[in-house]
Amino acid sequence: MIHDPTSPPTTAHWTVDQPLGDVPAAVDTELVRFFADRHADYDSIDPVVADGVDVLELFVTGGGKRLRPLFAWAGARAALSGGGGSLDPATGPADLLRAVGSLEFIQACALIHDDIIDRSDTRRGRPTTHRWFEAFHRDHGWYGDAAGYGESQAILIGDLAFAWADDMFMDSGVDAAALARAREPWRRMRSEVIAGQMLDIALENSGSEDPTMSQKVNTYKTAAYTVERPLHLGATLGGADAATVDLLRTAGRDIGIAFQLKDDHLGVFGDPAVTGKAAGDDLRSGKRTWLVMCALASADRSDPATAARLRAGIGTVTSDAEVDDLRQIIVDSGAAEQNSARVRELTDHAVATLRSGHLDTGIVDEIVTVADHLTDRRS
Amino acid sequence: MIHDPTSPPTTAHWTVDQPLGDVPAAVDTELVRFFADRHADYDSIDPVVADGVDVLELFVTGGGKRLRPLFAWAGARAALSGGGGSLDPATGPADLLRAVGSLEFIQACALIHDDIIDRSDTRRGRPTTHRWFEAFHRDHGWYGDAAGYGESQAILIGDLAFAWADDMFMDSGVDAAALARAREPWRRMRSEVIAGQMLDIALENSGSEDPTMSQKVNTYKTAAYTVERPLHLGATLGGADAATVDLLRTAGRDIGIAFQLKDDHLGVFGDPAVTGKAAGDDLRSGKRTWLVMCALASADRSDPATAARLRAGIGTVTSDAEVDDLRQIIVDSGAAEQNSARVRELTDHAVATLRSGHLDTGIVDEIVTVADHLTDRRS
User: Fold this and answer.
1) Does the distance separating the beta carbons of A42 and B204 come in below 8 Å?
2) What is the CA radius of gyration of chain A?
3) How does pLDDT run across B160-185, given as a tens digit for each residue?
4) How many A×B Cβ pairs under 8 Å?
5) How far off is chain B from A184, nearest CA to CA, in Å?
6) Distance between the two ends of chain A, CA-based, in angstroms?
7) ipTM score of the complex?
8) Which of A305, A314, B116, B146 is the 20 to 30 A CA-CA neighbour of B109?
9) How far is CA A221 from the centre of its chain?
């Protein structure tokens, strides 16, 4: 429990008009409540299980931008603000909040399993889940392979998070008809993010230089999962009409891809003081982004020797000077500007889409503000 | 697709009275249909995704006793055969079949992730999922760590199976009220099997000799997941009254634990020609079963030197002579008879429980036949 039990946090005053900026803190509150129930249900089985629930709670409540709940809330707000929707009287605003908050558990599963896949040691300044269990094994002088034990328990903790996403969503209190409407985006979102992750791993391991592979990863792993389907989910929960669903999905896909491309730009050109990562981190790790693939393709056409230097450097450079050299190649290839132009184009298109329907200006302006922030369109 | 598309299998003639023995083949048919839909939805994303769906299809449709669907079907039959239940006219027999068949996807996730955890190379005579992807990586001359790639993709394929369990269940066609009634066993079953797996891994790695730890693993990983909750799930789908749910859960827990203890007995004393495993396989692998823990505790009291020989031998023996020696210690300790007596006691108790209610003789006799078969009570 991370909150003082003498003054329990509450979302009792939550309303359907609540601004997007209020979503993250309110979701935190609901997640803490959810964990209190789960501790009551499962801690008594055994300390091993209670520890596992603790580890998952610290992970889920210990940070994160709550982007997916925020977009899902935006979808519900849009449905109810000119999007043709209405709420069943049986569904209260806090029920809707719980339903969108459940997306954080899908994200927890994705990150915990991703950290195993990427062999990451830390996340948000703390040991990753598999490293936590590995250290537990070592600290207790247990038998066998501590690293294998850590990965095994982390696989299971990720599975638990995936199951609990579903539990929090289905038991949110939202009426059955709204949950039934939301089945399609819920189903699609989960399969799409897994498909996107499968593609991403295949892309990294195959050494593909095909920009369309990178676009598919961006479409499924980021855009569908982070923006398009959360908006879709919220819209169906709020009973939006088909035109509003289409509009939100189109805008969401564009915002999501722009967000990923902007993130890829920061991975190469970002300021370490802002990103919290080493300068040119993506170049050091060899991440195969659309930006890098476009640079390779362009350099191949104009200057094969430079292309060879870029190709050899990606994933192998270590010094700042080497990073600067690759950065310059990417700029000179035109790919950096191509990437930035695409971010602007996609975001502009998304904004135009959002403004093309009958949605109230208030909710559209709020979504545009978030999109601008994520894609840095105004900077 | 494993069936000839010119004569598609069908469950159109499935009825609510269908015998338990008919369930496995009918579930196979529904799983094949489910995969046809998923191929249509996801193959077009990329060959990487299509391959992943193929791998999962081969795994799910390629064998298995379908025990969990069978018990869930038994629960539904019991609900409708004196258990106080009735079916909404909107729910057809094939809808119910699909709902119980979805449990095979939970099992697929559990086995695929278990195979990673146990570092198993084969299952049912074929490469495990992570080994399949590892070989794919190697065959294609990809970059990086083939084994790591295999594990990564297998984690994701397991996640996909877990998501699809839910999809198949929720989209089964069963009416919303029945699905809402089934939420509790559905929720509990998934969390309990994961908790049981966490306990199992902790037990193996800690070297615990506490028989209560082993009992907890049997309770959650086997009994709840394989028998109690499937019966519970089916009973709620069929609208069983509370007394019937209690009766089925009690009997299911007993049958499930007896089944595990019987399996543990076979793991030590079973005939390789029947079990398909090496003689004394559990002694060679060092599995910490209730049987072994009881033998250790008993030998510690009566003959510390023999206890030390057993303790040192578990997980380290390789020859048949060594296995025979450990077997004799386990027999002499009284633990083998204690284990067998417990199997008989639990199964007898389950049968008495099943006959104590108002369920029709027909469905009770069918469940008893399955229980006898699983626990070998009559042999």
Assistant:
1) no
2) 22
3) 999 999 999 999 999 999 999 999 99
4) 148
5) 10
6) 40
7) 0.95
8) B146
9) 8
Query: Do A347 and A372 meet the contact criterion of CB atoms below 8 Å apart?
Result: yes
Helix, strand or coil, per DSSP, at residue A180: helix
User: Which residues lie closer than 8 Å to B265 by C-beta, 6 or more apart?
Assistant: B291, B336, B339, B340, B343
Mark B253-275 as b/e (b = at least 16 C-beta within 10 Å): bbbbbbbbbbbbbbbbbbeeeee
Q: Do B156 and A201 touch (CB under 8 A)?
A: yes
- Could you confirm whether domain B198-379 is CATH 3.10.20.70? no
Whether the CB-CB separation of A238 and A74 falls below 8 Å is answered with no
Angle, helices A335-356/A242-269, rounded to nearest 10 degrees: 160
Q: SS3 breakdown of chain B: % helix, strand, coil, rounded to 5? A: 75, 0, 25
Asked if A45's CB is within 8 angstroms of B156's CB, the reply is: no
Nearest residue, CB atoms, A171 vs list B119, B183, B191? B183
Place of tokens 């055969």: B81
User: CB A317: neighbour CB atoms within 10 A?
Assistant: 19
CA distance, residue A363 to nearest chain B CA (Å): 32
Q: Where are the alpha helices (DSSP H) in A241-360?
A: 242-269, 272-275, 281-285, 290-302, 304-313, 320-332, 335-356
Query: Rounded to whole angstroms, how far apart are CA atoms A197 and B153?
Result: 9
- The 10s digit of each residue's pLDDT in B19-56 is 999 999 999 999 999 999 999 999 999 999 999 999 99
One-letter amino acid for residue A60 of the chain:
V
Contacts of A289 by beta carbon, 8 Å cutoff, 6+ apart = A214, A264, A267, A268, A282
Q: Which of A56, A152, A206 to mutate to test the interface with B (most CBs of B within 10 A)?
A: A152
The b/e string for A109-140 (b: 16+ C-beta within 10 A; e otherwise) is bbbbbbbbbbeeeebeeebbbbbbbbebbeee
Chain A hits for B170, Cβ within 8 Å: 183
Rounded Cα distance, B95 and A318, in Å = 58
- What tokens were used for B87? 């079916």
- Across the interface, of B190, B201, B206, the residue whose CB is closest to A153 is B201
Task: Name residues whose C-beta falls within 8 Å of residue A201's C-beta, 6 or more positions apart in sequence.
Answer: A117, B149, B152, B153, B156
- Dist. CA B308–CA A364, nearest whole Å: 73
Q: Where are the domains of chain A?
A: 19-64+103-171
Find the closest chain A residue to B50 by CA distance: A195
- Mutate which: A201, A216, A218, vs B, most B CBs within 10 A: A201
CB A20 within 8 A of CB A74: yes
A213·B46 Cβ contact <8 A: yes
CB-CB: which of A148, A195, A201 is closest to B42? A195
Q: Is 50 exceeded by the pLDDT of residue A145?
A: yes
| Residue A299, token pair as written in the block | 């350099």
Strand ranges in chain B using DSSP code E only, listed in sequence order: 122-123, 126-127
Quote the pLDDT of residue B9: 60
